[in-house]
Protein: Proteasome inhibitor PI31 subunit
Organism: Dissostichus mawsoni
Amino acid sequence: MLVHRNMAGLEVLYSCVGGSISCPQDAVVCFVHWEMIKSGYRCIGSGDEPKGSDKKSELLPADWNSNREELYSLRYKAKDSETQLLLKAISVDSTLIFNLMNSGTQQVSDLTVNISDHVEADQLQTFDSVFKDTDSLSEKVKTQLLPAQGRAPGQRTSRREEEDERRRREDSDPSASPSDSPDRDPPHTGADLDPFGSRGGGGMILDPLRSGYPRSGFDPSTGIPDILPPGAVPQGLASTRLDQSDDPDQVRE
């Protein structure tokens, strides 16, 4: 079991609501609430609409999971500003889907959590054993759900934007090698296995025709540098070679 390095605050929170936790979804919501508190927000109540009893608190409200069969709904306010956020979570099969909306800008971020990856369903009443792989869950909440510092809430960087930024950094540093970046695909992995085409090809999602390979006047017998040795013919290129050659006997598969 991989445990987060500092879970003291979560342990206190979990102890306060432990008597009302009756399903793994409750435990995940409790964890996400804790991440909200650590990030400078305070819970002001449950439900979609403001109430006269609303007040900032690090604890969960008494009725925080009273509607768990349909939807979790919690409202938060920034500790040092007027920013208000509405957190909703709904259980779909074995996952819990979170939406976090800035009530002022209507901007929304989302996160899908595979419940069994992070909660031991038979350990709900034992804090030391209930959570697993908490570092990973914490990172997901911070990068995919919570508003990032320096950006408006809901405006999280997309995977494609991150890939583009990484490629720009690598292009500006010609001395960088593929091994310098842990996020790059392995050196012997073709560009068609990279869905974002980070090695020059289009990638299998954006370019099913594998536009990274030369098309016009290409001679397979010369090989593809760093990909295929001389004489090797990529699958699907043999017919192209046959069309370009006057002598079919020159083509070897």
User: Anything to note?
Assistant: The CA atoms of residues 69 and 91 lie 8 Å apart. The helical segments are 8-17, 24-38, 115-118, 127-130, 134-145, 159-171, 203-206, 238-244. Residues 24-38 form the longest helix (15 residues). The chain has three domains: 8-145, 157-211, 213-253.
